Amino acid sequence: MKHKLVNTCFIAILALFVVAGCSKKEVKPVAINEKTDKCEICHMAVKNNEFATEIILESGKSMVFDDIGCMYKWMKENPDKKINHSFVKDYDSKEWIEADEAAYVYDKPIKTPMAYNVLSFTDKKDAQIFIDEHGGSLLTYDNLQNHKWEKNEEMVKEMKEKMNMHGQDDLKMEHSEDSH
């Protein structure tokens, strides 16, 4: 009887280890290297700021983007690629969050690196505070799947003019400092 109890406990503990070992490993975003990381779509440098996004494929490959619009453009152009996780940065804290857990704000005057005009927030409350102060529309992750991902052409033209007048370094500083 005692031998059966020991065997049962051993099997239960072994099963627990097997289940724990087979459980899905936590996936975290890869740190951005501002000196070498380029957006997969527009090939601009990716800053470690509130606009950065990242996709991790099932293969483990990590890809970074300088604007959430670039990330969605890549996903549309690569429907056959299996995405394991996608991350966005919280606009306020600049901390990584799972894209499907974030709340979003869209407004045409919002300045983002590639003029897609969408910001990410850790939660709906923070997004609503931004909207109350600056305007915009609240979007969920599900809304983004059907969002019309178009660049604000007026903003693109303005950015190109500034690049020609001041050089690209001035424009990069403006993206991180003047976001609305």
Walk me through this protein's architecture.
This protein is an alpha+beta fold and about 180 residues long. It contains six helices and seven strands, in the order H-E-E-H-E-E-E-E-H-E-H-H-H. The strands form two sheets. A four-stranded antiparallel beta sheet has the order 2-1-3-4. It has a three-stranded antiparallel beta sheet with strand order 6-5-7. The longest helix is centred in the first third of the chain and has 21 residues, at about 1-20. The protein is globular, with a radius of gyration of 21 Å. Residues about 5-25 and about 170-180 have low confidence and may be disordered.
Helix-strand string: HEEHEEEEHEHHH
Q: What does the main sheet amount to?
A: 4 strands, antiparallel
Read across the widest sheet, the strand sequence of neighbours is 2-1-3-4
Strand pairing plus helix content: what structural class?
Answer: alpha+beta
Proportion in β-strands? 15-25%
Shape: globular
Low-pLDDT regions: 5-23, 169-180
Mean pLDDT: 84
Q: Helical residue percent?
A: 40-55%
Number of helices: 6
Layout: helices, strands, pairs:
Blueprint: H1 2-22, E1 53-57, E2 62-65, H2 68-77, E3 83-89, E4 96-98, E5 103-106, E6 118-121, H3 124-134, E7 137-139, H4 141-146, H5 153-166, H6 168-177
Antiparallel strand pairs: 1-2, 1-3, 3-4, 5-6, 5-7
Helix pairs in contact: 5-6
